[in-house]
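Weekly puzzle thread! Below is a chain. First person to post its structure in token form gets bragging rights.
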Amino acid sequence: MDFNDIQSAWDNQKTDKVVMPDNLKKIQSANTPLDKIRKNLKKEFIYQIIAIVFVAFTPLLYDFPKETFFLFYLIYSLFTAVSIYYLVKLYMFYKRINKTDLRTKDSLYETYFDIRLNMEIYKTFGFAITPFLVLFLVGLLFYKEQGIDINNLSDSFIITMFIVIVFSVLMMGVMLEVWVHYFYGKYAKEIKKVIDELKEE
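Winning reply:
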């Protein structure tokens, strides 16, 4: 059989009954939760940038005294630097999953573990900016309550502040866990379910 015979036999094969393997269908079913993660990440990235810019105008919106501007913008510059670091990482993650094409088990595994890793990075980002939020709230409290003398604070006030700060940080942690689960975790679980189904085959 020469090359022309082989080519003729190839051309004469019927291709209208090509059946897609079940595992390929399952792998591609993970695209739907991945699309939702992409969409949520894109929205959140934009909102985070808007929030950072908005915080810069806080002293003007609340009529802070001019002498507090330096301290505020010192803290704000640290907050912005931390935020930029994490937002760059999240943006790089977004670019990676935008190029992801789930056609193989390996790409599915890689994508799932990348999502899990970046969920932890997101939580770390939230914890990293929490102290800045607490400092801002404490500063706002002292500004609003003009009668507070920082050199003559009562023990009850210090204890109350300690409890409020600890409670605020813990609440931020809980809210962050819920937020990450709602926008990313439940979709990551859907992808994990596909991986588990493929393992059973």
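Puzzle host: Confirmed. Bonus trivia for everyone else. The chain has seven helices and no strands.
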